[in-house]
Design brief:
This protein is of the alpha/beta class. It folds into 3 domains: about 160 residues, NAD(P)-binding Rossmann-like Domain (Rossmann fold, 3-Layer(aba) Sandwich), CATH 3.40.50; about 140 residues, no CATH class; about 80 residues, Type Iii Antifreeze Protein Isoform Hplc 12, CATH 3.90.1210.10. The protein contains 17 helices and 14 strands. The strands form 4 sheets. Strands 3-2-1-4-5-6 form a 6-stranded parallel beta sheet, with helices on both faces. It has a 4-stranded mixed beta sheet with strand order 8-7-9-10. Strands 11-13 form a two-stranded antiparallel sheet.
Length: about 425
């Protein structure tokens, strides 16, 4: 990629890459920890709802007081985006409506935008990417997070001339997790509420990781960026170890893969709760096929693990480093004008699905809450039913009863038609229908 050498040229020219970070939570903090050792990259400003918390995050990751004092830290993200010395904006709030607003403002200001906020990307990323392209700036998924790493693997396979059979990630999954709430989540993680509190762990955020929502969001982002598509009924979460990936992830393998060219998530535990051998809980993968007999023979000659046909293999990465790797996206945008993944169409959507019988008058509490989880669906199916995207399922009242397991639709809730995020989402639906 030559990003480091390109960065050194910028540094030698006296023009470091300057970043504005929105959100100094866990992902943002991991990025901040790498800044002092990345010569040529500077954080010009940090915007956070609590500037004091942002300063504390800087200290926690090893920044000295001189560096903190030299960095503008504010609670006004919009004003920060407008600063002339900010070249790349990193949106790391995790709040979908805020992410859309920040991304649009960055694009309007001619700034590259790295969207850590995958919730916002899945809600309206196809339209944001189109706006950025028209404005001549980069809109990018965040390297270090799994969607961008999967995008890289898919791009590698296609650039080599391989047909991509499937791509995705690993996670810990059991069907009962779909009903998990912030009140029950720590038991599934083997933690007590007190242990989680001491660790500063947010129960709703961790519940989104567990109940299937985050997996759906990330695979929708991958589908929209790569052209791969979800299975008609969403993610199957087949239990699978790295040694059997090639055999499990082949078209027609019932219960594991619906079609060639699919996004999928594999589970690190069997349905009885036992551990999968050689699991890929923290990693990502791409399954690809030899295009001809000669390539298949090369697989055999070079020790490539394949399915029984000898034609399908898998390349995987066993872990991802979240914000510690974010520099790759920032430098790719600033130095090469390239995204590390961005939506090219609307192929996957994540629809609010009832965790229990819900009653009219209840207020939905969003991603990771007690009411709904986000189910991955083909975007066309979501549009046909008028599915309520999980990114807008927060603080909206139900006007109808919804049975356990049913998808919530626009007609089932009372939405604020004037809300900018709602209006932009509906504009995106119309543009990509």
């Amino acid at each position: 990629m030559n990003l480091h050498s390109l960065l050194q040229k910028r540094l030698a020219a006296g023009r470091p890459v300057r970043v504005g970070l929105i959100g100094a939570g866990k992902f943002g903090s991991m990025f901040l920890s790498q800044v002092p050792t990345t010569k040529g990259l500077e954080v010009a400003a940090i915007a956070d709802l609590s500037p004091d918390r942002a300063r504390a995050a800087c200290r926690a990751v090893g920044w000295d007081e001189a560096r903190i004092a030299a960095t503008r830290i504010t609670d006004d993200a919009i004003a920060m985006i407008a600063n002339s010395d900010v070249e790349v904006v990193v949106e790391a709030t995790g709040h979908a409506p805020a992410g859309i607003a920040h991304a649009r403002r960055a694009i309007q200001q001619g700034k590259h935008i790295v969207m850590v906020n995958v919730e916002a990307d899945v809600l309206a990323g196809p339209l944001l990417a189109r706006e950025a392209e028209k404005a001549g700036v980069v809109y990018s998924l965040a390297y270090g997070d799994q969607p961008a790493l999967i995008f890289e693997l898919v791009d590698w396979a296609r650039a080599c001339g391989f047909n991509v059979i499937a791509a995705g990630k690993g996670t810990k999954y059991l069907p009962e997790y779909h009903a998990s709430t912030p009140d029950t989540v720590w038991g599934f993680y083997g933690l007590t509420p007190e242990q989680a509190r001491i660790g500063g762990m947010n129960p709703q955020m961790f519940n989104s990781f567990l109940d299937g929502t985050k997996s759906g969001i990330e695979m929708a982002a991958v589908a929209n960026a790569t052209g791969l598509t979800p299975a008609p009924d969403g993610l199957a979460f087949p239990p699978c170890g790295t040694h059997e990936l090639a055999d499990v992830l082949r078209p027609g393998n019932t219960g594991a893969l619906h079609h060639a060219g699919q996004v999928e998530v594999i589970s690190s535990v069997h349905r009885d709760g036992s551990q999968v051998r050689n699991d890929l809980r923290w990693g990502v993968f791409v399954a690809f096929e030899a295009p001809n007999d000669y390539a298949a023979r090369c697989f055999q000659e070079y020790g490539v693990v394949t399915d029984p046909s000898g034609r399908i293999s898998v390349l995987y990465r066993p872990f991802h480093l979240i914000g510690l790797e974010l520099n790759v996206s920032i430098l790719s945008a600033a130095l090469r004008g390239e995204a590390t993944g961005a939506a090219t169409g609307f192929r996957g959507d994540v629809v609010s699905t009832a965790k229990r019988d819900l009653k009219a008058g209840e207020i939905l509490d969003g991603e990771g809450g007690a009411c709904v989880w986000g189910k991955l669906m083909p975007a066309a199916a979501s549009l046909r039913m008028g599915g309520l995207p999980i990114g807008l399922a927060n603080k909206v009242p139900l006007i109808r009863d919804i049975p356990l397991g049913a998808q919530v639709t626009w007609d089932d809730v009372r939405v604020d038609d004037a809300d900018p995020a709602y209006r932009y989402r509906r504009e995106m639906e119309a543009a990509f229908a």
